[in-house]
Amino acid sequence: MEMDIVFPGGARVDAVTNGMVITTHQDGSAPAPFGLFLASIGTCAGIYVASFCQQRGIPTDNIRIKQRMDVNPLTRMIDHIELDIQLPPDFPEQYKAAVIRSAELCAVKKHLENPPTFDVHTSVMEGQFYN
Predict the structure, then answer these.
(1) Residue 87: helix, strand or coil by DSSP?
(2) Domain of 37?
């Protein structure tokens, strides 16, 4: 698995993966990298919730996930994330616990619970990269 990170200019930094470009920017014209990271948690859980509901013929148009993050004032790092799956009043009672379990299958969440190791280094490129 591989992803190219490119520098198109200014404070913009893009990720090129699977033929798509994910744009980030620190000036507010695109999501900042940390915002994308946080959004990946809730949207990943949302993919699992949507799949669960679709498999059972349950409409998702009135389902929301409210993601809340608590920041530790000493470290200024997020130390708690809450995913509140907001269901409509007519959501089937027998599926409420199962929809939580489906959200907990999120691959982003699982990677945060068992984080990868990092190896940051430099290398010299040969040939032309992206323009």
Answers:
(1) coil
(2) 32-113
Query: Which of these, 90, 82, 97, lies nearest to 49 by C-alpha position?
Result: 97
Asked whether residue 20 is domain-assigned, the answer is no
Does 130 score more than 70 pLDDT? no
Inside any domain, residue 15: no
DSSP state of 114: S
Its pTM stands at 0.86
Instruction: State residue 82 phi and psi, 5-degree precision.
Output: -115, 130
- Which distant-in-sequence residues (6+ apart) come within 8 Å of 88 by Cβ? 62, 63
Instruction: Tell me the DSSP string of 18-69.
Output: TTEEEEEETTSSS--HHHHHHHHHHHHHHHHHHHHHHHTT---TT-EEEEEE
